Amino acid sequence: MAGIAEMHFYEVLRRPIITEKSTVLQEHGKYTFEVRAEANKRQIKEAVEKGLKVKVVDVNVVRVPGKTRRMGRREVQTPSWKKAVVTLERGQKIEFFEGV
Questions:
Q1: Residue 35 in contact with residue 44, Cβ under 8 Å?
Q2: Are 4 and 38 within 8 A, CB to CB?
Q3: What secondary structure does DSSP assign to 2-41, as a single string?
Q4: Domain ranges of the chain
Q5: From residue 86, how far is each of 13, 66, 75, 83, 94 by CA, in Å?
Q6: Which CATH architecture is the domain 4-89 placed in?
Q7: Structural Rg of the chain based on CA atoms
C-alpha cells in the first residue's frame, strides 16, 4: 500500500456530504467531504485540486465521533470519521454538487 504522503486523491476523498447545512455552505463556496482519517489538510487540498480541477483557498477538518445506536436489545457503536470543509477561490464551483 502507498505511504500516507503519496496517497492518490481517490484514496483521500471518500464521498461528498450532502445535507441541508452543506448545501447552504455551497452558496459561500464551501464544499464538504468525508475524507480518510489519516489524511492531513495538505493532502486534502491537493486531492480536491487535482481531482476536481478547482483552486482551494482553505481547508477545515473536523473529527466526527461515532454514535451509540440500538439494534434490538444490543447497543452498537458507529465508527468515528473525518470531515473536511473545503473553501474554493471566489467564483469557482464544483459541478458535481450542482442540482443535488
A1: yes
A2: yes
A3: --GGG--HHHHEEEE--SHHHHHHHTTTEEEEEE-TT--H
A4: 4-89
A5: 12, 22, 34, 10, 11
A6: 2-Layer Sandwich (3.30)
A7: 15
**Amino acid type, 5:** A
Give φ, ψ of 10 to 5 degrees.
Answer: -70, -25
Distance CA 45, CA 42 (A): 5
Is residue 83 within 8 Å of 34, Cβ to Cβ?
Answer: yes
Q: What's the whole-model pTM score? A: 0.84
Grid coordinates of 25 = 455552505
**Per-residue pLDDT reduced to its tens digit, 12-58:** 999 999 999 999 999 999 999 999 999 999 999 999 999 999 999 99
